[in-house]
Amino acid sequence: MGSVIVELQRNSTNWAKAVGEIVKMERKIFPKHESLANFFSEELKKKNSGLLYLELDGEVVGYVMYSWPSSLFASITKLAVRDNYRKQGHGEALLKAAIEKCRSRKVHRISLHVDPLRTPAMSLYKKLGFQVEDLIEGYYSPGRDAYKMYLEFDSE
Ligand SMILES: CC(C)(COP(=O)(O)OP(=O)(O)OC[C@H]1O[C@@H](n2cnc3c(N)ncnc32)[C@H](O)[C@@H]1OP(=O)(O)O)[C@@H](O)C(=O)NCCC(=O)NCCS
C-alpha cells in the first residue's frame, strides 16, 4: 500500500479512529505537561487549525499540527513520528506538507517552539530552513527552555 499524507477532515468518517490513534501516540511521545492529548479534539475544532497525518499500510505513524492565528503568520504546533518509524523521511515529508498548507494561506512566516534538547527535531527544522529567533527560558516547565524558530517566505 505505501504511505499517504491525509488531511484530517472534521466531518470525515475516520475522524474518531484517526484522532484516537494520534492521541495514543501523543501520550506516549510527549511528557504530560507538554502533551495535548486531553484537549486535542478541542484544539482541532478551532477554525484556524489543521492536522495532517501519515498513514502507512493503513496505520497512523506520524502527524503534524498547525494553526494560522492571523493572516501574518502560522505556527507548527506539533510534529511527531512513531518511534519504530523514525529516520525514514516521514517527519520531513509531514513538515514539508504542513509548510505548503501554511503557504497556501498566504502567511509570511511560520513559527514554532522546540526544546533545544530535541536534537532530531532541531536538525529537521534547520534542514527545512527554520532559524532560531529567541531562547525562551522556562517555556515548557521550570528549567526547560524553548527555542522560538521561524521560517520566512519571500514576499512575491
Ligand atoms: C522529530 C521527528 C518528528 C523526526 O521524524 P523522522 O521521521 O525521524 O525524521 P526524518 O526521517 O524525516 O528525518 C529528516 C531530518 O531530520 C533530522 N533528523 C531526524 N532524526 C535525527 C536524529 N536522530 N539525529 C539528528 N537529526 C535527525 C535530519 O536532519 C534528517 O535529515 P537527513 O535524513 O537528511 O539527515 C521524530 O524524531 C519525533 O517524533 N521526535 C519526537 C517528537 C518531537 O521531538 N517532536 C518535535 C517537537 S514538537
Average of pLDDT:
91
Structural class label: alpha+beta
Count of alpha/pi helices? 4
The CATH class designation is Alpha Beta
Give the strand tally. 7
Order of strands across the main sheet: 1-2-3-4-5-7-6
CATH architecture: 3-Layer(aba) Sandwich
Low-pLDDT residue intervals, each spanning 5 or more residues:
none
Count of separate structural domains: 1
Largest sheet: 7 strands, mixed
Q: Note the gap between the termini.
A: 39 Å
CATH T-level topology: Aminopeptidase
Helix content: 25-40%
Morphology call: globular
Which compounds are bound in this model?
A: coenzyme A
Helix and strand sequence = EHHEEEHEHEE
Multimer state: single chain
Q: Work out the strand percent.
A: 35-45%
Query: What integer value in Å does the Rg equal?
Result: 15 Å
Fourth-level CATH superfamily: Gcn5-related N-acetyltransferase (GNAT)
Protein name: N-acetyltransferase domain-containing protein
Pfam families: Acetyltransf_1
GO molecular function: acyltransferase activity, transferring groups other than amino-acyl groups
Organism: Manihot esculenta (Cassava)
Description of the molecule:
By secondary structure, the protein is an alpha+beta fold. The protein has a single domain (3-152), classed as Aminopeptidase (3-Layer(aba) Sandwich). 29% of the residues lie in helices and 37% in strands. It has helices spanning 15-29, 40-45, 90-104, 119-127; strands at 3-7, 49-56, 59-67, 73-81, 109-114, 131-141, 144-152. It has a 7-stranded mixed sheet, sandwiched between helices. Strand 3 and strand 4 (73-81) form a beta hairpin. Residues 29, 78-81, 86-92, 114, 118-121, 123-124, 127 line the site of coenzyme A. It comes from Manihot esculenta (Cassava).
